[in-house]
Amino acid sequence: MRPALVVALLALLVAGCQPSPAANRDADPSRPPPAASTASLPAAVVPASFTTAPAEAPAAPHPAAPHPADDPTARALATGRLLSLRLPGGASTACTRSSDRASLAHLEARLDLGGGPPRTISLQLAHRGHSRAWRRPLAFARLATALGAHVVPSAALRRIPLGDIAALTEGQHGAPELLRELVILNDGTVEALAQAPAPGPPGPTWEPRLPSGACRTRLLAVEGAYDVDQWARWAAAPVTPLPLTGERAPLLRGYVESLVLDYLSGHILRRHLRLDDAAATLILDDNAEAFPARVTEHALDRLMHRLAAVMRFPPELRDALRKLGRAEAAALLAPGSTPSLAPAPLAQPPALPTGFEGWLLAPRTLVDLDERRLTLLSLIEARASAPAGATRLASSAPAP
């Protein structure tokens, strides 16, 4: 056989043994496929970034949820410098507590806000058996802020170094027992719920006592108190051009707000309301039982019965309930529990839920909150659609 013919046959044999480009890609998936001209591809499979046509406009971002940083009083409570701490046994207080759950971990503090005189606040320190007791009252305060309610004192979470607590309580009766009961974090701090003594408006009523030291507030029983029954009659009356005899708009609004907040949070164990007669302010300062893990419908019937009798809901409250959807409530009370609703960049998945430690409420509780919100909105809308001469939304502007 001629040498040239042998060389040609060997070349054909080697070429036949080489795999095709497709086979090479199957054997090594990491190898990119050869570039192809987009002109030969159907329009449906051409990436939008390769086309000359304008891309579709992204969906409008979801309305921003209310944020606790919007409350200047809460910011002051979280960042103000502690000047002093006083244990419950150190001195008697003129104001009767709204709850009988007073313990060694409930302290009175003086706070330096960077200007003006020091302010008096209350601190509830995390202690054994109650390491997360601050979550529910803090969630209640944030809900009130989101709805524009005027009956709940501002609240914030602080982390106080254990050394500061020891120094500020040194020499006080019960200080050693307090330090032994505190729950200390890995960084040496103790979580505490800081709460103003009373709500606004226009700003917080920092001093709940008269100059003489007497308490300017008094407790009212939710059931049977004359004042509470009077507010209920005002709320159930049809709106008229002139206020009812003796009607006080701030107290009327505060009564309706208290019903709404207790219903939304499932707070069925409230026994007392605090009233500041001089400021015409209703104060809900005992909110530890808000947002329980489970509430029966029968237990909520009492609150709904009172709400069903109300004919005069503030229009601002209705608007705030409309804005506080499930996503907004999750961002406020359980940040990171739901994926972001903002448009994600091209070819990137939505962010996963994060921030478990920052949750104030469990997801199931958020679902209950939203269901009650929708029920309440249905009731308010029914009142708004009633004949103008019978029932309609009442303005919350205080009487001169």
UniProtKB/TrEMBL annotation:
PROSITE patterns, A to Z: PROKAR_LIPOPROTEIN (PS51257)
Region (Disordered) location: 20-41, 53-73
Cleavable signal peptide: 1-22
Statement: the UniProt record of this protein carries the keyword Signal: yes
Keywords of this entry: Signal
Protein name: Uncharacterized protein
Organism: Chondromyces apiculatus DSM 436
Top-level taxonomy: Bacteria, Pseudomonadati, Myxococcota, Polyangia, Polyangiales
